[in-house]
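Lab notebook, bench 4. Still working through the backlog of constructs that have no structural model yet. Next entry is a single chain of 131 residues. Request: give me the structure tokens for it.
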Amino acid sequence: MIKAIDHIVLSANDLGKTIWFYCDVLGMELQRFTPPAGGDERLALGFGSNKINLHDVRKPFEPHTRNPTIGSLDICFLSDKPVDQWREHVLRFDIPIELGPVQRTGATGPLLSIYLRDPDGNLVEISNTMD
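Model written out:
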């Protein structure tokens, strides 16, 4: 049985802008690693016990999706920080809120969410569980 997601891969048009958004705005940590089989240094975004590997859309690492593209990701992040505080925080970076706060349903129950977009147009949902 599948029990969890280990990582996902995010294709980016401009790694610098992507790193700024996810690290400086959302508070993730930039990680650098070299695959066990060797090769070029790789970049990832770490948060909690999760990881998002970064690929430059023009030169993705092998193997990769059939059609590496930007702007096709729709991802929901859970946070202990209230979404109203997130709303104020991202607006300070001149990042518009596309929707929210709104109620949604997540994997384990009700959520309160805001929606925004990263530099490549990927849809980013930041949510609080509604216990």
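Notes after review: DSSP finds two helices and eight strands in the chain. The CA atoms of residues 55 and 63 lie 11 Å apart. Flag for follow-up if needed.
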